Amino acid sequence: MIRRESFFKFLIAPPPGWTGIVVVLGVGVMGNLVAGLISLWSGDSAWQLGAWTLSILVFLVLAWVIYSTWRREEPKVLVSEDEQPAKYRGLIVLVGTGRPGEDPFSQSAWTAIEYHMMSRGQGAGLELCWLVASGGEKGSLPIAQKLKEKCEALSVRAHTAVVEDAFSVQACYEVVQRIYEENVPAAGLSEQEVIADITGGTSPMSAGMALACGDRRPMQYMYGRKKGVASVPRQMGFAAQVRRGQ
Q1: Can you give the pTM of this predicted structure?
Q2: Residue 49 falls inside a structural domain
Q3: Does some domain include residue 242?
């Protein structure tokens, strides 16, 4: 993640450690060098002072641009590896409408998909994905379609399923239940090879998916998704905790 510092903050609080020392010394050295060159070119003290000040400002701006552009800060991971799910072959994920103008691929649904596509030596990796979207004029189906296209471009089979009433727990429960009872076996997968992500969608949709999973089907929740914190899934379950990757 690239972190951009404000120019004002950069001036009043130089970067810590060796970076700050180099910046401060660099400003001093460059200032003396520029002042010496200007004094050779012109004897006009007023013009000399203005040019020297401008040159220092230009150097500071340049240092700020380079520092804020290239400095990288790794986001914090607040979910331990023991709490993270294995890589599942199948994923059922809720897709929300997102914020106005938000990139669909910055949503938790896509982050969840990417997580299971990445191999960490814990499983075969994602092969099949069901995108559960809300219907209606303002529903999330158009976003789910975009995610579906991206999945297929990355060789992950994807299907969309629509919950017509996004505020009905029962409606989402029935859609997810049908996926587990009909679509999962038809795809040659067992229920324990498929994990459900309850993060996106409305709260009633999350509740409906959780009820469909019960205490025997793996679930996860995307934790994080804020500045400085990585968006990472956490395995979930009821009292009869589902074993990871089984």
Answers
A1: 0.67
A2: yes
A3: no
